[in-house]
Every structure is written in structure tokens, then in C-alpha cells.
Amino acid sequence: MSISTFTGIQTSLRGLLAQQRALDVTSHNIANASTVGYTRQEATLAASAPLPVYTSGGATAGALGTGVDVQAYRRVRDQFLDLQYRGQNMTLGDQTARSDALSQVELSFNEPGDNGIANALEKFWDAWGDVTNGPEGAAARQTLVDDARDVTQRINDLQASLAATRQRAADEYTQIAGAGGEISRTAGELASTLNAIRSAEMTGSQPNDLYDRRDLLLDQLSTMGQVSVTQSPAGSIDISLGGVQIVDADDTTGIATVPAGTFPLSFASSPGGKLGALIDLQSATGPIGSYQTELAAMAQSLSDSVNGIYGATGTNFFAFGVGTSGLPEINLNEPAVSSTTVVGGLGGQSDNALALQISNLRGGDADKRYQQLVTRMGNEVAQASRSQATAQVLTDNLSDRRESVSGVSLDEEMTNIIRFQRAYQASARAMSTTDEMLDTLINRAGRVGL
Amino acid sequence: MSTRITNNMLSRSVLSDLNDISAKQAQTRRQMSSGKAITKPSDDPFAAGRAISLRSELAGIKQHERNVNEAQGWMTVTTTALSQITDMAQTARQLVVQGSTDTLPQESRNALADQVDQLIAGMKQEANATYDGRYVLGGNRTNVRPYDSTENKTDPSVPTNDAYAGDSANQLREIGPKVTMVVNVHGDEVLGGAPGATGNMLGVMRDIATHLRAGDTAKLGSDDLNAIQGQIDNLLSVQARVGAGMNRLDTASSRLQEIEESTMSMLSNTEDADMAETLVNFSTQQAVYQSALNAGARIVQSSLLDFLR
Predict the structure, then answer these.
(1) How many CB atoms neighbour CB A34 within 10 A?
(2) A286: left (phi over 0), alpha (psi -120 to 50) or beta
(3) Interface mutation target, options B12, B21, B52, chain A, most CBs of A under 10 Å
(4) Hey, what long-range contacts does A144-148 have (CB within 8 A, 24 or more apart)?
(5) pTM assigned to the model
(6) What is the pLDDT of residues A10-47, one digit of tens each?
(7) Are the beta carbons of B56 and A381 separated by less than 8 Å?
(8) Distance from CA of residue B110 to its chain's centroid?
(9) Were B169 and a residue from A328, B116, B140, B235 both cysteine, which residue would form a disulfide, CB within 3.0 to 4.6 Å?
(10) Under an 8 A CB cutoff, do A106 and B42 touch?
């Protein structure tokens, strides 16, 4: 087979076009250097099909290269890293929600400081001590009643603020997992992205930027809980969160939808991630719930120990029970106990026998319970923030590894620009060289002696 | 292929490093401005629990110190009253000696009897001594005057009320953990209750006045003199008891102060920031922060673009 005279021009043209495409991809990369979730692309160049030529060297035909073709525009991405990243991101979502809520709890304890319960307890025992010194003094008794009110108020406030933190976790859960919530919106967006991908793929194209969009949405979803993706028979994917299917691709048509009645989400077991943390935080048996239980036990111990002694007067000093808000409450037994009726003992106005016994309760069970509660809470907050920091570091690490594969490096793109520009220039030069050769052939050949 | 470092990675790591250092600096700054190593329980949960327990202990010690101060005030008033009463009893004794002299005219004895009456009123008044508005010699009935100290001048024949209005309850003060001591003296221990009762000062004094008016020098010279001496001895022993109590309070007070100091230093070791160390940390962190900023600025800024035409 003979080779066309103009093959060289055609080959150069392919080179020009291919380098131009490669430059276009580079421009796209540079333009998206800061786009969240963008995966760098590269034009995959390959030599185009050669022309067979007969050579004198033997029976086999030689192959004359015909230049270059763009085979594909490839997304440079490692799917395995995506899975690792999403798993770690789920842990991060869990730890961040926990650590945030527990830091709130820590603030509401107000310890160590003058506004905490420990300080109020000190003052309360001090007030009893002062009553032992002068049970008949109006000032000492007034102080006692005020300090008793203060300590009960602080205990009840903390109880209420712990309940409010749990309620906030419940509200946040509803906001995220409820109908029209964040997850519901993400699922809807995922379904429409999947459908767009599907129709693009059916026309034979490779919608790289839609893939990026899909992967970004899955990343966002992975903060919330355990995301699992399964191939559906018709080619699209099914997505479930914490074991609940939130995007379903039809087995025959492959069209993805959010199944009706999915939201509000409810899980058979903990979905992990932020949702798992929120479920645990709002639970009565979760960390905050257990602080409430212990605080109530401490309040009851305070009430029982003081009443156990003061009850000899026929009146309880404290009243402990479930208040109007449905939370355990401790209160001064008013109006039976007031600054005018409170006594230090039974044997006359300045008997301080009961007051002496009560002031000896300082450092007793109630105080110890509270100290243990603060220490336990402090430990758990410290633990949560350490775990959060660890999860953050690991997530950052994986994010870096992913970015290392898929991210846009401007230095690299600059280098590529030069590379492709030079290749383009060289192809152009080859074309003009061929042109000059043809000029020789067409315009000058056969004009000998003119 | 070696690890690709992209621009996004660079800026993320520069930012997160700067955040880390800033967070550490903020913590150090909190320690410097509060002077405390622990500003929240999670900084050091064990130390936070211990600090709460030490504070409670410290508050208990301070309460005991206040109790001791109260008790000291109470006993000082008691001692003063007792020594005044003793002085008056000594005066009464001299009057008895004077009145027992046979050569003394009866008018003078009557005058002495009047003086004894005044001394009785004075003793009662001293026995009504108060501390912070409370009658210290009244047992638990601290709001009731233990003795009626008004002398009926218009009709001397009406017997004055010498009854003790208090009770014999002990006033206890807690001066240490579960350590209580009695701080009070009952009025009837020193002045007695009803007239004529044996071993009571008021009865003896009334007898002396009666005997002076009656000119019964024999009784004055023997029984009365012995009786008043007996009362003075009783007073001195009560005073000795109170004195011993005050010594005990002094000891308790200095012991409490020592415990307070050691507890305070334990508390300080537990929760106070070591200023020197904190300052060193702070300047180290500042240097680190500045060099991180410097490095970050250079790394983030430069690019191949700077060197291409």
C-alpha cells in the first residue's frame, strides 16, 4: 500500500489537535483548582492506528505511525481511598458531635469557680456552721435559708441545662434526619445526579464532573453515618445510610429515586457518624442522661442526709422529687422551713445539737458524689476532645492522600502548559516542514533549466 | 511516583497548623490571665476533682476557725464577767470581816449591808453579760436575762427575785472535725438559784446582808466568812476551767491555721499555674507561631508561575 504524499500534514494536524485538547484539559484543571470535590483530569493520549507499509526488509509489513489521538479524558481518582476517607469521616462526624455537646455540658457545670455547685455546697455547710455558733441569730438563720435556696437552685439549674442539651441534640437530629432535612435534600440531589450520570453514559460520554458531584455528595453524607453503596442490576447504584436505603435505583430502568416514606429516618441499630452520636446524646442512658441521673442521686443524697437529722424537728429541711418540669428537683421545704422557723436544735432557742450534726455532713456523700460527677464528666470531655482531635488528624491525613492523587497542582499544570505548548509548536513546525517539502515537489520539481 | 503535594494540601496544612498553635496559645493565655492551670474540668479531670475536694476541706477548716473565734469571743466575755464577780466577792468578804468586828456600830453595819445589796445587784448584772446580744451565762436560754438585776428600792421588804432564769444546757462549739467543746458557764454554777440554797453565791450574800442588819457578828465571823470564802474558791475553780478552755481554743486556733496553710499550698499546687513555666511556654509558642506564619506565607505565596515568563 502506498502512502499518501499528504500523510505528514495529517499526522501533524492530529498532533496539533491532541495538544490543543490536552491544553484545554489543563485549563479546566486550573480553573477548578479550588473547586471542592474536583478531581483533576487528564487527556489520555495514544498513538493512532498505523498504516501498514511494505518494506524491502522482508515479508512482514512495516507500520507507519499516523500521529496521536485523544483516547479518553480520565479522572485521576482512587476509589479505595474514597472508601477509607468516608469511613474515617463518619468517625469524625461522631466524635465532633459528641465533643461539641460535651463541651457545652462542661460549660454548664461552671467548675472550678465561684458559680458552681461545689461553691454553693461549701457556703451551705458554712451557713450551718454559723448556725451552730448562734442558732438564735436572725442573720445566721437568714443566711442559712438563702444559701440553702442557692444550692438547690444551682442543682436544679444544672439539671435543667443538662436536659436542654439533650433536647438540643434531639432537635438537631430531627433537623438533619427529618422530612425535608439535610439528609433528605442530599438524597434527592444524589438521585438526580445519578440520573444525569445515567443519561450521559447512555449517550456514550463520560460525565467526569457529574461523578465529582456524586462523590462529593457521598462524602458529605458520610459525616452523618455509615454510607454503603451497592451496584444496582440496571447499572446505577443504591445508597443506604446506617442500613436504611435512601436512594434506590430501579432494577430494570436504572432510574434512581428516594423511596417514599424514608424520612424521617429511623434506625434499627446505631447508624454511626453524627446521627449515631446525636441519638446517643439525647438518650436517657447516654452520657448526658447519666450525668442527670448522677446529679439527681447527689441531690437526693443531700436531701436525705440533711432531712435524716433535721427531720427530728418533725419537719423536713429539703423536699426532693419530680418537679413540674418533669425533672428531678430539690427544694427548700418552704414555707415549713423559713428564716423564722428554722432551728439549730430541739432544746431551746440556742440549742445547736442538730446544726452541729448537719454541719458535720460537709465532705460527706453528697459532696463526694458531686466531685465524682465532675471528675467523670471532665474525663469524658477530655476523652471526647482527644478522640475528636485524633479523628480530625486521621481524616486530614486521608484527605491529603486523596488530594495527593486527585488534587490540582498548579506547578504541575504550569509544567504541562509548557509541555503541551512546545509539543503544539513542534507539531506546527513539522507541518510547515512538510509544507516546504511539498513546495519543493509541487512548485519546483520538473522545472529544470527554467 | 512520589507524593504529589497540591496547592490545596499546602494551604490546608498551613491553616490547620496555625490553628493548632493558636489554640495552644489561647490555652496558655487563659492560664496566664487566670493564674490557674485548670480552667475547666477537662483540662485535668483528676486535679479538678481534687481541687473541689481540697476547697471543701479548706472551707471546713475556715468554718472551724470561725467557730473558734466565736468561742473565744464568748469565753472572753465569760472570763471578764467571772473576774468582775470574783472581785465583788472579794469586796464582800472584806465587808464581812469589817462587819464581824463587835466594836462596829450597828449603823455602819447597816451601811455595809446596803453595800452588800449593791454588790448583789452588780454580780447579777455581770452574770447578765452578753456576747453578740446573747446572755452567755444562761445555758441554752440565751435570749432570756439569767438574773433579775433590778433592786426594789422603794420597799426593801419585798424579796428580790434571785431565781436563775437560764437552764443547765451546754453550749457546744465544733472546733475541729467532730471535735466539740463546751464554751459556756451556767449562771447557777457561780451565783446559784434560789436564796438559801447551799453553795450559791446569792444565798450567801443575802445571808450576809441579813446578818449585818441583825448585827449577828458571831455568824458573820464564822459561817458567813467560811461561806463567802467557799464561794470565792468555787469562782476561782470555774475561772480556771474557763481559762483552760481558752488555752485549748488558742491551741486549736494555731493548729487550724497550720492545717489551713498546708491545705492552701496543696490546693495551689493542684490548680495554680506555674507562672515561670507558663511564661516560658507562652514565649516558645509565640516564637513557633511566628515562624509558622513566616514559613506559611512563603510556601503559600510561591509558585512556578513566579518564575515563568
Answers:
(1) 10
(2) beta
(3) B52
(4) A144/A339, A144/A342, A145/A332, A145/A337, A145/A338, A145/A339, A145/A342, A147/A120, A147/A123, A148/A124, A148/A317, A148/A318, A148/A332, A148/A337
(5) 0.84
(6) 999 999 999 999 999 999 999 999 899 999 999 999 99
(7) no
(8) 47
(9) B140
(10) yes
Rg of chain A on CA atoms, in Å? 38
Mutate to test the interface with B, among A351, A356, A372, A388 (most CBs of B within 10 A): A351
Give how far the C-alpha of residue A341 lies from the chain's centroid of Cα atoms, to the nearest Å. Answer: 57
Q: Å from B62 to nearest chain A CA?
A: 9
List the grid coordinates of A437.
Answer: 517539502
Contacts of A405 in chain B (CB under 8 A): 4
**Identity of the residue in B41, B56, B71 whose CB atom sits nearest the CB atom of A377:** B41
Percentage of chain B beyond pLDDT 70 is 94
pLDDT tens-digit readout, A238-273: 999 999 999 999 988 889 999 988 888 989 999 999
Q: How far is A347 from chain B (nearest CA, A)?
A: 7
Is-contact A384 A95, C-beta < 8 A? yes
The nearest alpha carbon in chain B to A357 belongs to B178
Q: Which three cell numbers stand for residue A195?
A: 440520573
What whole-number distance in Å separates Cα of residue A124 and Cα of residue A143?
9
Q: Are the beta carbons of A305 and A368 closer than 8 angstroms? A: no
Q: How far apart are CA A384 and CA A101, in angstroms?
A: 10
